[in-house]
Specification:
Helices cover 46% and strands 0% of the residues. It contains four helices and no strands.
Length: 95
């Protein structure tokens, strides 16, 4: 008889480090909390996370940042946050 496999949880430090920024992006991309995701995978993009049209999501992000950032909406959200921080190191505190 085989031993039951133990479930090991992955380190959450990367998730914890980006939690504030990810939630801020979700709030911008989908302002209605009822339509925001309950769970967000580290591989999900904003397009995966919210149900709006890409044009609407992009328009909201452009308005929030005051410019079009050269970041693809298809990028996983954690990488999206890192790309914003590379362009605007003080974000979100500079808003």
């Amino acid at each position: 008889m085989e031993k039951p496999r133990r479930i090991e949880f992955a380190d959450t430090s990367e998730t914890d480090r980006r939690q504030r920024e990810v939630q801020l992006l979700i709030n911008v991309a989908e302002p209605d909390p009822e339509l925001q995701p309950f769970f967000l995978s580290d591989e999900a993009s904003l397009l995966d996370a919210v149900g709006g049209a890409p044009e609407d999501i992009q328009r909201r992000l452009d308005a929030y940042f005051g410019q079009r950032l050269p970041i693809a909406l298809q990028l996983p959200v954690f990488q999206f946050v890192d790309a914003i921080r590379a362009i605007r190191p003080e974000w979100p505190d500079d808003m």
